Amino acid sequence: AIQLTQSPSSLSASVGDRVTITCRASQGISSGLGWYQQKPGKAPKLLIYDASSLESGVPSRFSGSGYGTEFTLTINSLQPEDFATYYCQQFNSYPLHTFGQGTKLEIK
Amino acid sequence: EEQLLESGGGLIQPGGSLRVSCAASGFTFSTYAMSWVRQAPGAGPEWVSTITADAGVTYYADSVKGRFTISRDNSKSTLYLQMNSLRAGDTAVYYCAKDRGLFGYTSGWYNAWGQGTLVTVSS
After folding, report:
1. Between chain A and chain B, how many beta carbons pairs sit less than 8 Å apart?
2. Fewest beta carbons within 10 Å, which of A31, A106, B81, B117?
3. Which of A89, A90, A93 to mutate against chain B (most B CBs within 10 Å)?
4. Could you read off the pLDDT of B66-81 as tens digits, one per residue?
């Protein structure tokens, strides 16, 4: 099974900062990587799919990049509502469909 | 507005059975693949199962294969997950999720989620 490793597992940042979260796959997955944001007690929300495509309605300060085994989520100019846990998810084909362990983004 | 509303969760003893449901509204349910994703307390999400728009094909995670059955009733815009032989490790919030793929295409990305229903397996 393909493993996803996110780094860092937690991150402290300030409003206005630029942050980057990395997700590494144990084997190549082309561009089959997505990113979700989850706030406490809520369901995950899709931000990025196919490694770099921005989901409709998601602010443009969110961006994704990468291919193969290494991917990044970048958030430019952090806003107060961005403090949450972020998960990467890989999808190559069923049943190869896994999530990373998460990165908790906290206010410094 | 796309809405998904799960129901049917609760406390169940190990070895027991439970069926959870998900009522959809705000979109043409019959044209989208649907999935169940669960999340154990303090853990990341875990994909459980997917069913194509026409219910012709189903997929399962190895951890639930042979114990869980996904189904849908497009006339009622409702998704189901029948869970048998439940184990403590199945304890989680179960979310239904809509695939973002158009015309029944299974993209593997989920752009609408319900609020979740908690299933607790314990004696």
Report:
1. 59
2. A106
3. A89
4. 999 999 999 999 999 9
Question: Which chain A residue lies closest to B51 (C-alpha atoms)?
Answer: A94
Nearest-CB residue to B44 (from A34, A50, A100): A100
Closest C-alpha among A2, A6, A1 to residue A70: A6
Q: Name residue B38's amino acid.
A: R
B86 pLDDT more than 80: yes
Rounded to whole angstroms, how far apart are CA atoms A38 and A87?
Answer: 8
Mean pLDDT in each 10-residue stretch from start to end of chain A (108 residues)? 94 96 95 97 97 97 97 97 97 82 95
A101 touches B: beta carbon within 8 Å: yes
Give the residue-averaged pLDDT of B100-123.
Answer: 93
CA–CA distances in Å: residue A86 to residues A50, A56, A76: 16, 18, 15
**Of A34, A94, A95, Cβ closest to residue B109:** A34
Strand partners, A37: A45, A86
**Torsion over CA of B41, A34, A57 and A85, rounded to 10 degrees?**
30
Residue numbers of B between 45 and 104 with CB closer than 8 Å to A: 45-47, 50, 59-62, 95, 97, 100
Residue B111's closest chain A neighbor by CA? A46
> Could you give the CA distance from residue A98 to residue B61 in angstroms, rounded to a whole number?
10
Query: How far, in Å, CA of A17 to CA of A72, rounded?
Result: 16
